[in-house]
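Predict the 3D structure for this chain.
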Amino acid sequence: MPRTFSVHDTVVVATDPSTVYQYVSDPTLMGRWSPENLGATPAEGPGTATRPGMVFDGHNKRGPFRWTTRCTVTAAEPGEVFRFKVHAIGLRRPWLRGPIATWEYRFAAVPGGTEVTETWTDDRRAWPDPVANAFDRIATKGHTFAEFQRKNIRITLRNLKAQLEAHPTAAPGSADVR
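Done. Predicted structure below.
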């Protein structure tokens, strides 16, 4: 079965694009919305400004399993787009290098707020489909990564919307947005 290499979903959040971007582009906050990510540690330390070339380690969990990914920001245009590539993975530290995935968030002003589109792209192009499909079904308990990420994206966007609409003026990093 051929793989689906990209999936996305969209939600409208009742606030402006620059506010939504401010939250989403801070990888240390992603654990507040994602069902799998626990947050991130910027390589340059806390408070690092998000910019292309910024490197961070993402901390993740799925059930009892935990792992760390190394990511590099490839686009950071306030109020428009935030994108990063995942290019290394490991249990405590990301030591296994190679193209893994690209995550992108696009922001567009629409009546009622901001349309946020989250996209996951499978960058494991060199993997043969049967190998990728077998690995995916083991890692996700029976699903392809496209199916699995489609569900995670839906949950992430739903949580982002709920939290930002409940606390639209709270500054990123404040205790008000959990």
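The chain has three helices and seven strands.
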